[in-house]
Write a structure and sequence with these properties.
Layout: H1 2-14, E1 29-37, H2 45-59, E2 63-70, E3 76-83, H3 86-97, H4 102-108, E4 109-117, H5 122-127, E5 135-136
Parallel strand pairs: 4-5
Antiparallel strand pairs: 1-3, 1-4, 2-3
Length: about 140
């Protein structure tokens, strides 16, 4: 219940930053990941996350929000990613799959929860099949201006 509340609050804070013009016209795709940090990787975590953030910002113009949140004991990380649309999310997934940092990411983080929020195409679902099958479509909501 606590996790669902956190997700809902986070999404409500994120949506104003995405290109959103009413819930039926919202094309954004949101990735929400909970991850454990490998104990042997925690020492260089800040540097690695900074590298990942800079790389995504520089190479993926369709990514509108990309933020890491860490627990006080530095053992758990939540990652929130927002893409303009399905095509931008698919671009990110394909970029990640061939990225030089892919193995380092998977060695650093153990994904314990991965939700894809928004209207995922079959192509996106297929591309993400090795990481998650939890795709959730928007059913209702609003955004204040």
């Amino acid at each position: 219940m606590k996790k669902i509340f956190l997700i809902l609050v986070t999404v409500l804070l994120i949506l104003p930053m995405s290109s959103y013009a009413g819930h039926h016209n919202d094309k954004s795709i949101i990735f929400y990941l909970d991850m454990n940090v490998a104990s042997e990787k925690s020492e260089n975590l800040d540097k690695f996350v900074a590298y990942l953030s800079e790389t995504v910002e520089r190479t993926e113009p369709g990514t509108t929000y990309y933020k890491y949140f860490i627990s006080a004991d530095k053992t758990k990380v939540s990652l929130l990613e927002v893409y303009q649309d399905d095509a931008a999310a698919l671009f990110h997934v394909r970029s990640f799959l061939k990225a030089v940092h892919r193995d380092e990411f998977l060695d650093t983080f153990e994904i314990t929860n991965f939700q894809v929020l928004g209207e995922s195409s079959e192509e996106l679902k297929l591309a993400m099949a090795d990481f998650t099958d939890d795709h959730r479509a928007l059913i209702d909501g609003f955004k204040r201006k």
